[in-house]
Structures are given as C-alpha cells and as structure tokens.
Amino acid sequence: MATQLLPAQLETDSSPEDPPLVSPTVKLSDGRHIAYRERGVPKAKSNCKIIIVHGFGSSKDMNFQVPQELIEELGIYFLLYDRAGYGESDPNPKRSVKSEALDIQELADQLQLGPKFYVIGVSMGSYPIWSCLKYIPERLAGVTMVVPVINYRWPSFPDSLTREDYRRPLAKLLYWVAKYTPGLLHWSVTRKWFPSPSVMEEKPVFFNKRDMEALKKTEGFPMLTKERLREQSVFNTLRNDFLVCYGDWDFDPMELTSPFPQNQNCVHIWQGYEDKIVPFELQRCISKKLPWIQYHEVADGGHLLVHYNGLREAILRAMLLGEEHHLYRPSADKTVP
C-alpha cells in the first residue's frame, strides 16, 4: 500500500506550486514567528527528515519537486521554511551567521524532528548550512549545499585564485554600497533605468543555456521585482541577508572538521561548471581543503541547476544512499592550488 503524501506534495515535476494563503508558524524563544511548509510523507512515517533552506529572494515556496515514487521509496519528509524576514516569517534585527543555524535547530525541535535531521541549502541558503556545520554539527544526519555562494573574505582562499576573479571586486563594491548607502541603493534599484530582475533573468551574462530553459518552468526571483523592492521591509530583509552572508564571519569554513568523524555520512557540494555567479574553481578549492566534502560538478550546469530535471533526484540519492553518478565527477581540465 502506497504511503499517503502530504497534500502539498501532489505535484508533477513541471507543474507550478500554489503557496497556501496562510502558513503554519512556530514561535521562537525570542518571540519571532517562523513560517513553514511540510511536504512528502507524513513525519511520523518518514525514514528521513530533510530541512530545505532557500536562497536570496526566494521562500519556502521554492520549487523542489521530486517524483512521488522516490519520496515513497525513501520515505522522505520535507520541511521548507521562510528564513527570517522572508515570506511569512518575522524579521530578525539581530540576524547573524550563527542565528541562522539556531533558527534551524529551534524549528526542528519545536516540530519534533528528532535528534538528527538532514539539511539542504541552495545558493545563498548555503551560508546557514555552513553555520550548522559550525554550531550544531551533532544535529546533522546529512548535509548538501547546491551552488553555495562564496564569501571572498574567507582567509583560506589562495590569492592566485581570487586575484583575477571579476566577481571579487564586484562583491566588494556591492557590499560597500549596501552597508554604507542603503538609501541610495534602495532608490536606485527601484528606478526605471535600473535593470529589473526579469531583465537580468533574460541575460546570458548571468545564466547559461540550461539556466535559461529552467527559468521558463520556474518563477525565478519573485521577491526581487521592483514592486516588491519598493516595500521597505522586503528591501531591508534582502540587504541584511546580503550583508551577513558577505560580511566578516567569526569562523573560517575551511577550518571546520567533519561532522561525521566515523564516516557514517559526508557533506556534499553540487556545482555547475558553467555557473556564472559562483566560480567552480573556488568550490574545487574548498573540497580539496576539506576532503570530507564530496564534490559533484555538472558539466553543463549553471547557477540554477537545482531546477534541472533529474538533478534533485541525484542530489537526494547521493545524500541519502551514497550514490555517485560518473556524470557528476569534476573533469580534470583545470586544477586548483
């Protein structure tokens, strides 16, 4: 007899998702409310509980559609939530790298996910995952980061890799503008002459061919429209999230130790070789310095590879079953120090 799925999971891989009008919430110890969404098999009948962490400008309603057969086969329960200030969750004026991990831990405890759970972070949703590896490693059953963002302030990156990277000075400039001239930034991103996110989504300078195809089947970045950015609360959330992600951290991720010292599992990074936002060379550098990370590289993948058909299944099978497909092994045409 097939396992009954939660209603929100009854979707095909190409159908749009309709978010609920009002989502359930939990009240954290500091009084903030975090909205969440459950998918997959019922929690009590699940074999594995996975928390999915959305990225910049996204929400708990992000597309992470997985075939029903795989969900039933592996007994997967998904928990998606709005990070602080996003969607229906209250903002956190004291947001920090550490607070992101503590929010995940408290959410898991209040929803009784048990002593250990899996986490998947997408793009900017990866810095909360690094925080989990630092602050709550004992709670992790398995870890995956998909096209995780790079913070050029991490001291362990060799200068030979970052010196010529055009994204480094751009990130530095955007950080300075966001930190010291927020009013000017807010004014500029809502002007008619400023490229809108919808325009940027159409520009191959940001996305590769497969990304462009994926954008036809997903909502893209609905929180980054000029209409939403005019809302001061939305702008403040995005700005604060950006500043925390790209600011100074109180630890260097490349000095972390494995959360699985007995090799009972590993940490996974999935990266697109053609990603125009995050350089694959730096992801290879991270996995080389941290040999307990299993690095997967999609040869024709861009920054939106989490939306490619078949990739979500591969991501889950790698994390939950230890499967590795030869198609996702990095090529040796380029090396890192």
From TrEMBL:
This is AB hydrolase-1 domain-containing protein. Residues 1-24 are annotated as: Disordered. It holds the Pfam family Abhydrolase_1. Residues 50-306 form the AB hydrolase-1 domain. Gene3D superfamilies: alpha/beta hydrolase.
